Task: inverse folding
């Protein structure tokens, strides 16, 4: 009995002890949970704060980015404006240069020598006055001057960086003079034919009896006119019949000079231009002579009919061409920039300086080696760093007609 009582009492003790134990555990867990809740609350608040800070930061950066973008576009506009201004200033400077240079404007016909029955005789000053009417009616009946460049076509790139090409207005055949001298010429049936051709090897090659010198030849009405310059022999103009394949005439140069006509293209010994008006020869009268001279020749016989000092300087000249009895000299700089017509000389004295255009060629690859005018199409065949380029011109009537 006593043993049973002891057991009961001890069981009751144990029970009460367990109850206390569980109660403690519950309290502990409850406290932990509360602590975790607190922490969660804290983290939640923290992340919310971060989030709103992020939002603020985003807003600020967006604003700054927007401002930067604005500034960038403003800078870009400024740069564009500056580029345009530089371009305009460049043109204005060129123009001012053209206006103030005593030589770079349209020239009055200045006939310095005339071939009379007794040979060459001087005719200056008063004689010029009397010759005027005669010049007017005799030299050229053409009434147009160039007013601008309408369009440019880059046709092809064949041959070496320097060369010349031209189209016979009468036959439409195209002739390519590759390089700066040679004893052959490449013939194509048309501009289209050249454009489609894979290269010069696929042309008809015409072998000449002697070498042409410089990119200054001319082709007109089935005849090829070229400059022949051999060591120890005076420079000659040769007329070659493309149909029969033979030389039909040769003529000595008007002066005994080996000087190149354009200062920027030393290979151009002299430059020929042929059209209905006749055969024109541009040449340098001597090494120390600053100006380009012009001779008018009879295309049939190669007789020299008249000679003029164009008063257009050879210095910085790269090419020239003849339109309607007026010589347009194209200038550039030694480091090639924009080619421009900056000197016009009219044999009829009809292009006055206000009319003479200051004509800019679009900036292209390098500089022109040659520019050949085709009177039927009113376009120029240019050779620029191996590219064959066609410039279409716009014309206007001369004022004093
Ligand atoms: C063109 O001329 C250059 C040298 O001036 C030469 O190297 C080249 O072979 C020529 N091209 C043709 C097709 O004759």
Result:
């Amino acid at each position: 009995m006593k043993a049973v009582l002891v057991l009961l009492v001890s069981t009751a003790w144990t029970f009460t002890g367990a109850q206390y134990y569980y109660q403690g555990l519950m309290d502990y867990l409850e406290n932990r949970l509360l602590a975790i809740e607190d922490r969660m609350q804290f983290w939640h608040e923290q992340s919310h704060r971060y989030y709103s800070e992020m939002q603020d930061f985003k807003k600020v950066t967006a604003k700054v980015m927007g401002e930067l973008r604005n500034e960038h576009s403003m800078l870009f506009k400024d740069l564009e404006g500056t580029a345009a201004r530089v371009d305009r200033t460049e043109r204005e400077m060129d123009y001012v240069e053209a206006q103030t240079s005593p030589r770079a404007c349209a020239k009055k016909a200045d006939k310095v020598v005339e071939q009379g029955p007794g040979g060459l005789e001087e005719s200056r000053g008063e004689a010029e006055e009397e010759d005027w009417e005669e010049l007017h009616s005799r030299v050229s009946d053409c009434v147009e001057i160039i007013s601008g460049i309408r369009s440019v076509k880059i046709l092809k790139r064949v041959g070496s960086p320097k060369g010349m090409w031209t189209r016979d207005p009468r036959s439409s055949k195209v002739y390519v003079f590759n390089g700066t001298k040679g004893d052959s010429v490449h013939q194509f049936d048309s501009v289209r034919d050249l454009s489609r051709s894979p290269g010069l090897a696929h042309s008809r090659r015409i072998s000449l009896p002697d070498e042409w010198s410089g990119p200054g030849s001319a082709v007109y009405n089935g005849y090829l006119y070229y400059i022949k310059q051999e060591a120890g022999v005076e420079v000659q103009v040769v007329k070659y019949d493309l149909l029969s394949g033979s030389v039909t005439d040769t003529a000595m140069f008007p002066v005994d000079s080996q000087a190149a006509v354009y200062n920027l293209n030393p290979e151009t010994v002299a430059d020929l231009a042929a059209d209905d008006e006749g055969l024109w020869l541009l040449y340098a009268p001597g090494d120390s002579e600053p100006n380009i001279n012009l001779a008018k020749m009879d295309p049939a016989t190669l007789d020299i009919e008249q000679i003029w000092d164009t008063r257009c300087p050879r210095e910085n000249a790269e090419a020239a061409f003849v339109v309607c009895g007026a010589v347009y000299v194209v200038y550039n700089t030694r480091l090639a920039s924009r080619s421009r017509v900056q000197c016009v000389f009219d044999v009829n004295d009809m292009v006055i300086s206000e009319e003479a255009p200051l004509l800019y060629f679009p900036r292209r690859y390098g500089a022109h080696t040659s520019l050949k005018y085709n009177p039927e199409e009113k376009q120029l065949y240019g050779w620029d760093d191996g590219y064959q380029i066609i410039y279409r011109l716009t014309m206007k009537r001369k004022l004093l007609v």
